[in-house]
Amino acid sequence: MDTVLSEQPPDSWDAFPLFQILNDYLRQDDNLKHGRFHQHLRDTFAPHVVRYVDLMESSIAQAIHKGFEREKWELKGNGCATSEDLFWKLDALQSFIRDLHWPDAEFASHLEQRLKLMACDMIESCIQRTDIAFQQWLKKSMPFNATDYQLPGELCAMVNVALDAKQQSLKLCAVDGIDVHQYHSKIDEIIEKTSHSMTQGLIAKLMSILENTLSKLGRYDEGSLIGSFLSFTNVSGSGRELGQSYINCMRTAMDTIRSKVNDELWTLNVFELWYTDQVKMLNTWLSERLNHALHPYQFTCLAHITKKVYSDFELQGIEEEKLNSKTYQSTLQRIQTEEATCALTMGRSTDVEFTEGPAGGEEKQKPTLRETLSLVDDITPGNVVNKLSNVTSNVASKMGNIVGKGIGGFSMKFGGGGSSWF
Fold first, then answer.
1. What DSSP string runs through 78-143?
2. Rounded to an integer, what is the distance from CA 140 to the centroid of its chain?
3. Which of 17, 139, 307, 396 is a good FRET partner for 247, with 20 to 30 A between their CA atoms?
């Protein structure tokens, strides 16, 4: 055996199957176990095992560095390509060392502790690189129209990496589910902080869309010059279009999260926090305008958003008590109040319209549609000429009276007579 091993090239691992065969045979025989040949076998292969672990640790570290440099963050397995490769290598290395069944208990414990520490360090590096990439993607600017924003699938892949790391850490950093070396508690705390940071960052990004939508509604605030101009020109529509564009953007983001994030509990938690923050922002925006009536454009948009947000998140599985919170009830009550106010205001302005009467002091109601149609029906080929001549004479007489009053006195001064120019 010594002769064969001496002829092996350095850093060659072809001899490990020989060690496994001999070691398994010797450790099962009570007469040969821990004997002279067994100890010689152990001492011969111990440097090879240490060298193999050193090289694998260096190789995995380089793979993490190079892998995340060119990572495209496409969904693969439970995470991305780099994370899948990392967890497979760590698991394969631990399985290989475990299957050696090293005869020396102290050295075997040392190998186990070193591999668990290596896994903890590698997972921490993976999480840190993923979090850096996640924050960089969040900093990418919004489109000119915020409601055209589409949540990138790459962000969901990064979330999956963190969630998968949490699952893998229990197997790779603990011993049979027991955190003997306290490595699992350490990495689990890091993963929890990163996952929380990702959740908050993602929600903040989505909330900026609603914030942008409400800033557009703010242009219609009472006393706003821009709002008066937009209302006069009516270039922005009724407000429902803006509300629907936000709802469409919200639904697209929900579908992306639902279809690409692997953890159902994480998804449900994000939806609950997102819904709560939306309702709070709507309620805050309305509270800031508590002493001012909403413009019809503002009311129409907010009413559409409020109702659709409730129904859409209800379909996503949010509990009724969280949907119908006190904040939502307060928001809905304000919307209903503004709805009644808008109905009364618009009804008062459209049902009855008045014009100045003949005497100047009376108000005369405009003719109704029925009266107008009766006048139209009275037009026949026989009386068209009579009606036109009556209109012409009436107009001429009124113009004579108006002009005569203003010019007649002036003509008397120069003409000296009592006759009028008309």
1. TB-HHHHHHHHHHHHHHHHHHHT--S-HHHHHHHHHHHHHHHHHHHHHHHHHHHHHHHHHHTSPPP
2. 14
3. 139
